[in-house]
Amino acid sequence: MRPSTQTTIIKVTGHSAISEGKLTRWALTTIALSFLVLFLLLPLFTVFAEALRNGWQTYGKALSDADGLAAIKLTVIASAIAVPLNLIFGVAAAWSIAKFEFRGKVLLTTLIDLPFSVSPVVTGLIFVLMFGASGWAAPLLDNTNIQILFALPGIVLVSIFVTFPFIARELIPLMQEQGSDEEQAALSLGANGWQTFWHVTLPNIRWGLLYGVLLCNARAMGEFGAVSVVSGHIRGETNTLPLHVEILYNEYNFAAAFAMASILACLALVTLAIKAVLEKGHGLKH
Amino acid sequence: MEIQLSGISKQFGQFKALNNVDLTIQSGELLALLGPSGSGKTTLLRIIAGLEIADIGSVYFDGVDMANTLLRERQIGFVFQHYALFKHMTLCENVSFGLRVKTRAFRRSSAAIRARADELLKLVQLGGLEDRYPHQLSGGQRQRVALARALAIDPKVLLLDEPFGALDAKVRKELRQWLRDLHQQTGVTTVFVTHDQEEALELADRVVIMQKGEIAQLGSVDQVYKQPASPLVFDFLGDSNIIAAQLRGDAVHVGDAAIGPYPSTANTAALDEGAVDVYVRPSDLRIADAEQVGIKVVVKSIQRTGPIVRAEVSFSACTFGQSHSTLRVELPHLHHDVPRFQIDATLRLRLMQFSVFAPQTITPVREQLSAPILIGQKRERLAG
Question: A219 near A264, Cβ under 8 Å?
Fold first, then answer.
């Protein structure tokens, strides 16, 4: 007993000035780890366990179901439209905020965060109010025969709204930190705006940009609330992957529901993995 | 190329960075813009380059108004304080950037571009490092790459913003000499900004001393050093002692001693008789011989710092009893007068060279400029 007590005392006096005692560290680590297991690892494990409960065959069948495939296809299409548009917007917004001074800059910076603070359901309702049968844009839509609600355009619009901030938020601090010296140098050497962007700005922000795109994509594919309001839940037509999971679940078709959910979970895991690789690559680069 | 600035004013919010500045930069000269931080020197340089636009006033290159000429059309070699090298490009790619972005009609073959880049890297003594990246280089090497990159476009004028500000003292000295040689080789009109008076005096043909957005003095190195136009200029160009004195007739008197004739120069307005301030550098004070006029002082402290011996002396009470009561004296350590500087020894000092100005109500305090530029170091660390 004695030696260990002694060591403890020495350690505490040695560390007290700069860090916490051993007990505190141990307690903090335990709390963090148990939360991690309880709220993150266990649910993730459950998704795959439930999906595979009735064997691989049932899993395969659930995935190859026509409605399921349609949901996957719709989700991919919606993201494939929303993410590139947000990429363009995000780069433009980050560029203007980080490198220029203009009136309303603070307002723009604040507005970019709006989708983070608005509940996705409210977002969906806003679009229903705008494009619904009695909405603001109804006369125009009736005349031109364009269907927005309960169709792909509506789903894409809310996806864009919800995932709006991801890329811009990722780039703004990065570009602000880098300043505009390199761009000015490129311009003074005779490069035009496009050459400067392509050869100087883009290489400097590529890792942050890729990371932002990944996050944006993960959210676009996983979004439930806002899409749920505008989609109309038409099976095989306007059901995205998350909506399809819910329908299957409500029908007590647990194996299929979890099989679909496992795809979303895989997407999340792949995103995390790529992110880790990117961060490592980024670290090596410098 | 001759550059003419006329009536340049620039304001940032409430802060007047430049106030009606007129300046002509002669073709082929090496000009220093010298001044404390906030004096407007960097803003002036950026206006010449086209990185900033003046609120009022015009910039002429060889008589042509540059108002509608964009930065990228001005053919200017700009060297940034923190180098602004392209981090993801090799040295060769960095240096050849200006040649590669030209439109096809004016672009040379890639072999010719490569050869020119190699040649420039050799010129800045970095031959053989073509395939390195900027983060693999020291600060001095990076600065030389930045210069080579700026020279690649055959600039009509080379503008350098505190080119050696972020480097340590030894590298700075080496690069100074090197830039001087390079300027002689290329003959390109060169303007550089610095807050280091030693750098400006050593490197430049002519010096512009800036103060609060205005030109305090413009002249050759000798002119500004020997005939400073104002106490501020005197103070900025080196250490100074200030002695309260009297101007009687043509002679300057400190107490009873007539230390010399009033040094009238073209730069200063003629002074009235009466109270004046005498400005003298610590290195311009020597012990007076028996037959020479001198001010009586008592040695208070002696400090030996390598090649220079510094002494602090105070006026003997009988001669003088006013506010500026101590003087600093500097001697080369092998000077024959050094042994006579003993604590409490009474000596008579003569002023080998001095300036006379109207008395100031407030003693100008030389700004502390030797502090390292932390922002630059921090950014470099993040980038590397």
Answer: no
